[in-house]
Design brief:
81% helix; mainly alpha; elongated
Length: 210
């Protein structure tokens, strides 16, 4: 597990919660209207930008790998390949049937070799699996970045809606506070969704593609 992703998210939420609680009641910072415009608007815009298949594959895969470290470092991978090659040299393809590895991609290749598939079949299948995986991971990064771009924009839309409602009810002082709070909370929610969650995850996924 990539512990820094979890630590960063938890620490960020603690910082925000601390500032909220130091300034007053937590309920002051909850607005159903702001939540609806931020999440509803961001989801709608994402559905327009991306096909359903990309969303269904990209979002969960992106969330998973944002919290996952590579099981093997480059050095460990070289040592693992050397160990497997030694087994194959001594025992032949039959010996590979008992080889265990934590890397699913490598394990699949070993299974192909042990089952006697030819080199072209193995290469084509592994390259296809790799390309599909990287495509879905890239889609996940793009989707999280799209949500990160949309959330502040819909926060501003929520702010404008709240301001219009406030100015339309200037004769009723009891409504000015709630409308103003909704306007400001929409901006706050949009900034938090984008900068504490979506954009950092998008950047982390982009780094894993390099």
């Amino acid at each position: 597990m990539d512990i820094m992703t979890g630590v960063g998210l938890v620490f960020g939420m603690i910082v925000v919660a601390t500032m909220v609680l130091m300034g007053g009641d937590l309920h002051m910072f909850i607005s159903e209207h702001a939540i609806i415009i931020i999440f509803g608007g961001s989801i709608a815009a994402t559905m327009i930008r991306f096909p359903l298949s990309a969303i269904l594959h990209g979002l969960p895969l992106g969330a998973k790998f944002a919290f996952t470290l590579s099981r093997l470092s480059a050095r460990d991978l070289v040592e693992e390949l050397a160990r497997i090659a030694e087994i194959a040299r001594k025992q032949g393809p039959v010996g590979l049937e008992k080889v265990e590895t934590d890397e699913p991609f490598l394990a699949k290749g070993i299974r192909y070799v042990a089952d006697g598939y030819d080199l072209e079949f193995i290469r084509d299948n592994l390259e296809r699996d790799r390309d599909n995986f990287l495509m879905h991971l890239d889609e996940g990064g793009k989707i999280y970045r799209a949500i990160g771009d949309c959330a502040p924009a819909f926060g501003m839309i929520g702010t404008l809606i709240g301001m219009v409602q406030m100015f339309a009810n200037m004769t009723d002082p009891s409504k000015l506070g709630p409308f103003m709070a909704t306007a400001l909370l929409a901006t706050l929610y949009g900034a938090l969704v984008a900068n504490l969650f979506c954009l950092p995850i998008a950047d982390k996924l982009h780094g894993k593609l390099l």
